[in-house]
């Protein structure tokens, strides 16, 4: 079964809706974003959701001390590094790490070279948008992402970028990722999730078989 990550959670109510619908991962953003929350706010949310849901802290080019502090205060179980973090930096943490790689259309070779340098537990594929580190609502080049997934059969890939209830079936059919990651595509407004879209998205993904 495909795993599901709902990212950019900013409040307890949205978190509880995602949890009850069957999300496997929840993402708390600690970088510049309309969905950014404090470590303390994430901690409040964390204490209100089931313990079997993975709590993922999302960071962009942040220093190690800040990340370690967030792990403690927010009760994180995973770390997502979304910037230009080096393979050495990614290896400094005991928690599982998701390294985000921004892919350009039809440039699989360049992405392959970057991915091969990382030994992280997971890789997240998202579209390359100049000056942006996620949350753009733009879909990735799914055929290129699919080629990457088939190249690195020993890695677990998250697919992100503009996913919503209407396009996730096509995305999964093309890419065949380990997990899908949705945020802006499930919102009523930046940082505020549509509970209807969350439920629809998770229901659709859980009915996908391949």
SSE blueprint and pairings:
Layout: E1 3-7, H1 12-21, E2 25-29, H2 39-46, E3 54-59, H3 64-74, E4 78-81, H4 87-90, E5 97-103, H5 108-115, E6 122-127, H6 142-151, E7 156-160, H7 168-175, E8 179-182, E9 187-189, E10 192-193, H8 195-206
Parallel strand pairs: 1-2, 1-8, 2-3, 3-4, 4-5, 5-6, 6-7, 7-8
Antiparallel strand pairs: 9-10
Helix pairs in contact: 1-8, 2-3
Describe the overall structure.
- With 210 residues, the protein is of the alpha/beta class.
- It has one domain: Aldolase class I (TIM Barrel, Alpha-Beta Barrel).
- The protein is 34% helix and 22% strand.
- It contains eight helices and ten strands.
- The strands form two sheets. Strands 1-2-3-4-5-6-7-8 form an eight-stranded parallel barrel, surrounded by five helices.
- Helix 1 runs parallel beside helix 8.
- The N and C termini lie close together (9 Å).
- The mean pLDDT is 94.
């Amino acid at each position: 079964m495909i795993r599901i990550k709902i990212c950019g959670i900013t409040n307890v109510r949205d978190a509880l809706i995602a949890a009850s619908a069957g999300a496997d991962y929840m993402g708390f953003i600690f970088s510049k974003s309309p969905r950014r929350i404090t470590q303390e706010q994430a901690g409040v949310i964390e204490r209100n959701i089931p313990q079997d849901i993975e709590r993922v802290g999302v960071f962009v080019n942040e220093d190690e001390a800040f990340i370690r502090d967030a792990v403690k205060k927010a009760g994180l179980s995973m770390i997502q590094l979304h910037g230009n973090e080096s393979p050495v930096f990614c290896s400094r943490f005991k928690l599982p790490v998701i390294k985000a790689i921004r892919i350009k259309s039809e440039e699989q070779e360049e992405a392959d070279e970057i991915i091969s340098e990382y030994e992280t537990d997971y890789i997240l594929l998202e579209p390359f948008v100049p000056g942006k580190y996620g949350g753009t609502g733009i879909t990735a080049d799914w055929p290129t992402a699919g080629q990457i997934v088939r190249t690195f059969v020993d890695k677990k890939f998250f697919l992100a970028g503009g996913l919503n209830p209407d396009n996730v079936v096509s995305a999964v059919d093309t890419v065949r990722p380990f997990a899908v990651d949705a945020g802006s595509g499930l919102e009523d407004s930046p940082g505020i999730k549509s509970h209807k879209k969350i439920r629809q998205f998770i229901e659709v993904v859980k009915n996908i078989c391949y």
